[in-house]
Amino acid sequence: MTRITTGCPRCGRVELDVDEVVLVMSPREETSWYLFDCVGCARRVVKPAPTTVAVALTTVRTTVWVVPAEVLERVEPHEQPLIAVDDLLDAMLLLAGDTDLVTLAAGGPGTRPGTGAPGRVSGPGEVTNPRWGEAGSPPARPSAA
Predict the structure, then answer these.
(1) Contact in structure between 18 and 63 (CB atoms under 8 Å)
(2) Co-location of 49 and 101 in the same domain
(3) 139 falls within a domain
(4) Domain range for residue 83?
């Protein structure tokens, strides 16, 4: 059986079986790492895996986990969009008790509750559906916007 020799920051040199090492690969080729539970101190050790190490670990058939690409789509705090006027109005309606979370989740206070169809809020809790062709109504053809 193949043995893998690596190092633990506490214990030093450690020999492991192939099934004790997990290689984690990212969609970005330059980012990958491997992890194992040290047999000496029983701590989880995470170490970077350059391309040569990643190739060697896949060659001996260690367990490979692939990081989903969605994880890398994080937005930095300074890149997040600002709060829009609609977001503020939804929060105010929710706090005022004029609407509930189910209505907001169904499409917001500007829709008929439970249908997601376009509508107009006329007063507290009252929703009316505009007629086709009136101001504020959706176009008859979606491409006519």
Answers:
(1) no
(2) no
(3) no
(4) 75-129
Position 106 scores a pLDDT of 63
Q: Is residue 134 part of a domain?
A: no
Instruction: Give 30-58 pLDDT, tens digit per residue.
Output: 788 999 999 888 899 999 998 888 889 98
Q: Indicate whether 34 and 90 sit together in one domain.
A: no
- Convert 111-138 to b/e letters by CB count within 10 Å (16 or more is b): bbbeeeeebbbeeeeebeeeeeeeeeee
Are the beta carbons of 109 and 93 closer than 8 angstroms?
yes
pLDDT bucket at 124, cuts 50 / 70 / 90: low
Angle, vertex CA 113, rays to CA 110 and CA 117, nearest 5: 60
Quick check: is 20 in a domain? yes
Give the angle 122-128-132 at the CA atoms, nearest 5°: 125
Report whether pLDDT(29) > 90. Answer: no
71 pLDDT higher than 70: yes
Q: Is residue 9 left, alpha or beta, with left meaning phi > 0 and alpha meaning psi from -120 to 50?
A: alpha
Tens of pLDDT, residues 74-122: 777 777 778 888 888 888 888 877 666 666 566 655 544 444 444 444 4
